[in-house]
Amino acid sequence: MIRYQGGSLEAFQDIYAELASSVRRYLSHLAGGSEIADDLLQETFLQMHRSRAAYNPAYAVRPWVFGLARNVFLMNRRAARRWAQVHESREDLPESPVLPEADSLGSRDEIRRGIASLATDQAEALLLHHEWGFSFDEIAGILGISAAAARARASRGMADLRAALTGLQRARA
Amino acid sequence: MMDRTPRPPEALMRAIAQDLRPVKPAPRPLRLALEAAPWALLLSSLVLLAVGIRGDSGILGPLLTWGASAAQFALAIVLVWIGAHEGTPAGRLPKQAVYSTAAAALLVVVAITVSTLSISPAGSALRVPGGLPVPPWAMDLTCGIGSTVAGGILVLLFSWIFRNSLAIRPSVAGALYGAGAGIAINAGWRIACPVTPLRHALGAHGTAIVATMLLGALIGRLLQTRGRRPN
């Protein structure tokens, strides 16, 4: 990021190569669809470029870009008034990640549906921690909550997901 | 083997390549707040130097005259610091902490105003050079417009300090440093202003704080819009 702030195009390409896939999956989770996620991904990196002077090396790059991505999603949602559509389209969840911790409890599709059924804030904290590996302090900085609240949301989300998947397994048995 | 490394789309690369001038990294939130503090102190002291200390400062005592203003000033700088965090993608503070500090800062201003009134209900008269007392409406106007202008100048200075630091939530960050500017100016102004009734203190001085908060939000939004324009 420091090379990028110095004016290196290659440094931008490196950052894109490193982060684009995970940021896209995060945006896809937030937006509930992959079509809009591609647009939001480009907007996130454009926003990162415009705000590159605002980055301070004291912060890790990944949570900084995820925080920007979240803000881009929220701005877009507000501008387009797509909130209702976003929730309606959650049924198919094309690219929702599958958590390794829940892998043994159900098929990929069941886990995706399980995550989609969680409260939005729980699902977000759960994925940020278990899927993208952020610490609870980093999640707190991205979401504007305390680290304890981030931990509580993620663990409640995991407990609810486990309960939903175990219930499904029992019903199947 | 196919290279699966994600590559930026052409249009994005073109937009990036158009403006690759080197930029200086923004300071951390604490550093921003510390850069803002001397300007706030300078501007809030100017009115005090121009008008002088209120006539009833002896009745109020040093704690309610200087101590209360010092506490108010410190809270103002805390608001600026929180505003800087609010504009940082990975550095946001918990929402509850942000809103409760903002509410606490406004409550402290009201509490200081009420305490001042209860200890010195009559205040002291301000006289123009000819010896005539200044009518209340003129005091309202002077304090309302004067502290709004002083606060507005401070908001502009803060906006200059924050110009490259608002990556997200610019309106909220601007409102926070704007409120900080208004409260910092009020910290100095209240030591000079001899009028204690709540109508004046909350009406004229309070309106100035609200005005600087709104101005900060507006400038914060403009700063980000300016950053979004293609170069």
Describe what you observe in this structure.
Chain A is an all-alpha fold. In chain A, 73% of the residues lie in helices and 0% in strands. Chain A has helices at 2-5, 9-31, 34-50, 61-80, 83-88, 108-117, 120-131, 136-143, 147-172. In chain A, helix 3 (34-50) crosses helix 4, helix 4 (61-80) packs parallel to helix 8 (136-143) and helix 6 crosses helix 9. Chain A is elongated and about 60 Å long. Chain B is mainly α and 231 residues long. Chain B has one domain (48-228). Chain B has helices at 10-18, 29-51, 57-86, 95-119, 136-161, 170-192, 198-228. The relative contact order of chain B is 0.17. The chains are: A mainly alpha (173), B mainly alpha (231). The A-B interface holds A 2, 5-9, 12-13, 16-17, 20-21, 42, 45-47, 49-60, 63-68, 70-71, 138, 140-146, 149 and B 5-9, 11-13, 15-17, 19-28, 86-98, 164-169, 227-228.
Offer a few descriptive terms.
heterodimer, A: 173 residues, mainly alpha, Rna Polymerase Sigma Factor, Chain: A, Arc Repressor Mutant, subunit A, 2 domains, B: 231 residues
